Amino acid sequence: MLPSLGASLTIASGVVAGGFYLAANIVSDRFFRRLIAQHPELADAFPPPSPNTQYGPILPSKMAYLKKKRFEELSDPALRQLGLISFRVLTACFVSFTGFLLCVLWWKVNQQLS
Fold it and tell me: What is the pTM assigned to this prediction?
C-alpha cells in the first residue's frame, strides 16, 4: 500500500528539517569555535547550558548573537561570511521545521476527514 500524499510530504519535510537542524548545528559550531579562537574575550558570552536544559540546534546565547547579526561587525571577512552562512542555515532550519509541523497538521486533518 502506497503512503498518502500527506504522509509522503510529512516524511520528506521531516527529513529536510532534520538535515537543516544538523547543518545548523555543524555550521554554527564551526563559526563559534573560530570566533572564540580569534576573540577569546567572547568566550564568557556563550556559557554552556545547565544540565537537563533543552534548546534548539544551538545555544540560546549563540542564537541571540546570530539574530542580532553581530557577526557583521567582525573585521575578518571570512568570519563574517561564516557568520552569515550560519545565520541563513539557522533560519532555514526554523522555516523547514515550521513546514514540517504544517505538514503533520495537514496530514492529520486529511486523515480525520477521510
Answer: 0.84
